[in-house]
Design goal:
Shape: globular
Number of strands: 14
Helix content: 40-55%
Distance between the termini: 12 Å
Oligomer: single chain
Keywords: Hydrolase
GO molecular function: magnesium ion binding; phosphatase activity
Largest sheet: 8 strands, mixed
CATH class of the largest domain: Alpha Beta
Strand order of the largest sheet: 5-4-3-2-1-12-13-14
Organism: Anaerobacillus alkalilacustris
Number of helices: 12
Protein name: Hydrolase
CATH topology of the largest domain: Rossmann fold
Number of domains: 2
Order of helices and strands: EHHEHEEEHEEHHEHEHEEHEHEHEH
């Protein structure tokens, strides 16, 4: 094992969206033993770097489901944005079904509906299996705005038309299952060349076809001269599938969706039980401890 790739929400961080000390300790131990660690997340860089900094972790980050790869210094190594034409098609389909969505860009994440943006975070929390009270979940969700992880705007038009801004991902959310499935089916038209996944029960994560965690992880591993057989990937949801299938060692969180557990070679503890640390320590003993 020469490289560890870990998802963030539902995996590396707990239900409070905080990075537990045990997970940080295990990552630092892996790095000290010469193993590279990369975080692969659906978050943009601004939202992803905060818990890592607080835990004292410096590592590369595969952001926005693989649409962007950042060095440990935060420099952009690779970017695979949506084209304007692709975004307009997504906008039309989601708008016709009255589905809320946020856009993730090179200038951060943006929403036109503050209330719906809060519900997105609550949905992610609930998808981990943690039974948070409405008050607690709302407080966690509010932190996205308080900490500048998402910004409210009246319209996306200025961002879309700004040639200095790239749209990396669209995150759609609705409790209407029929609308969500219809939107997913329409967006999966091969002609649009989109990648559709999800990180929680009621959302859709939409990026360009080549912006996937697995593809980005392969690029990163190749740049370091590491084969995918020497990679361990840890995740919990459907936007992790591509990297879990690509890695030589695939680890599902204890709180992962059943379908995710089915495709993995190992199941660790939940994200509230330091599952990442448990998995890293196990394989660290088997590889370094030989």
């Amino acid at each position: 094992m020469k490289l560890i790739a870990t998802d963030m929400d539902g995996t590396l961080v707990d239900h409070m969206r905080e990075l537990p000390g045990e997970n940080a300790k295990a990552i630092l131990a892996a790095q000290e033993s010469g193993i590279l660690v990369v975080v692969a997340t659906g978050r943009d860089y601004t939202e992803a770097i905060k818990p890592l900094k607080e835990a004292g972790i410096r590592c590369p980050i595969i952001c926005v489901n693989g649409a962007e790869i950042r060095s440990e210094e935060g420099e952009i190594i690779d970017s695979t944005p949506l084209s304007n034409k692709q975004f307009r098609k997504i906008e039309t389909i989601l708008g016709s079904l009255d589905i809320y969505y946020e856009i993730y860009t090179t200038k951060g994440a943006f929403t036109k509906d503050r209330k719906q943006a809060l519900l997105v975070v609550i949905d992610v929390i609930e998808s981990t299996g943690f039974d948070a009270s409405n008050k607690e979940a709302l407080q966690i969700a509010e932190r996205r705005f308080q900490q500048g992880e998402i910004t409210y705007v009246e319209s996306f038009e200025k961002l879309v038309e700004d040639k200095n801004v790239e749209i990396l991902k669209v995150l759609a959310f609705t409790k209407d299952e029929n609308a969500r499935l219809e939107g997913k089916n329409k967006l999966e038209n091969p002609f649009y060349e989109l990648s559709i996944s999800s990180s929680a029960s009621d959302n859709l994560e939409i990026s360009t076809q080549n912006a996937q965690k697995g593809i980005a992880l392969k690029k990163f591993a190749e740049s370091k001269g590491i084969s995918m057989e020497e990679v361990m990937a840890i995740g919990d949801n459907f936007n992790d599938v591509s990297m879990l299938k690509a890695a030589g060692i695939s680890v599902a969180m204890g709180n992962a969706e059943p379908e995710i557990k089915d495709i993995c070679s190992y199941i660790t503890k939940t994200n509230d039980e330091n599952g990442v640390a448990f998995a890293i320590n196990k394989f660290l003993k088997e590889t370094v401890g030989k």
